């Protein structure tokens, strides 16, 4: 199973920025799709952003569209989530995930490998 190493979480004031990083232990068909999910206390986990490693196509959750950017550095095998204009409602545990594509697409349901999570806290 693919191991995912995350870094970059922390605390920031509203309006600030953070960048999360995720590096898989190996790159195979099972890491074609990589994404970030988040879960706030008392809420369900939600998809934040995803990227198809081959097509470089991206998808974002409605609440982060225009503020967050997912990208990848193939040489470093690392995926990044740049988070700008952070809001208190962005607070939560952020998880890196990897999975195979489904018909060439990275649906939110394809992910089967998960990182341990990194905490993001945004204060008002």
Q: Which key features would you list for this structure?
A:
48% strand, globular, 124 residues, 11 strands, mainly beta
What report would you give on this structure?
- This protein is mainly β and about 120 residues long.
- It has no helices and eleven strands.
- The protein has strands spanning about 5, 10-15, 20-25, 35-40, 45-50, 60, 70-75, 80-85, 90-100, 115, 120-124.
- Strands 2, 4, 5, 6, 9, 10 and 11 form a seven-stranded mixed β-sheet that branches.
* Beta-strand percent range: over 45%
Largest sheet: 7 strands, mixed
Query: What is the SS-derived class?
Result: mainly beta
Average pLDDT, all residues: 94
Helix content: under 10%
Can you summarize this structure?
By secondary structure, the chain is an all-beta fold. The protein has strands at residues 4-7, 10-13, 18-24, 33-39, 46-52, 58-60, 68-73, 78-83, 92-99, 113-114, 118-123.
Which helices and strands, and how do they pair?
Layout lengths: L3 E4 L2 E4 L4 E7 L8 E7 L6 E7 L5 E3 L7 E6 L4 E6 L8 E8 L13 E2 L3 E6 L1
Parallel strand pairs: 2-11
Antiparallel strand pairs: 1-3, 3-8, 4-5, 4-9, 5-6, 7-8, 9-10, 9-11
């Amino acid at each position: 199973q693919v191991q995912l190493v995350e870094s970059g979480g922390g605390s920031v004031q509203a309006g600030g920025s953070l960048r999360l990083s995720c590096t898989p232990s190996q790159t195979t068909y099972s890491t074609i799709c990589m994404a970030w999910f988040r879960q706030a206390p008392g809420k369900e986990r939600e998809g934040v952003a995803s990227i198809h490693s081959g097509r470089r196509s991206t998808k974002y959750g409605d609440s982060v569209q225009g503020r967050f950017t997912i990208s990848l550095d193939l040489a470093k095998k690392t995926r990044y989530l740049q988070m700008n204009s952070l809001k208190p409602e962005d607070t939560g545990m952020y998880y890196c995930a990897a999975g195979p594509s489904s018909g060439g697409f990275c649906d939110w349901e394809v992910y089967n490998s998960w990182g341990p999570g990194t905490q993001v806290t945004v204060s008002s």
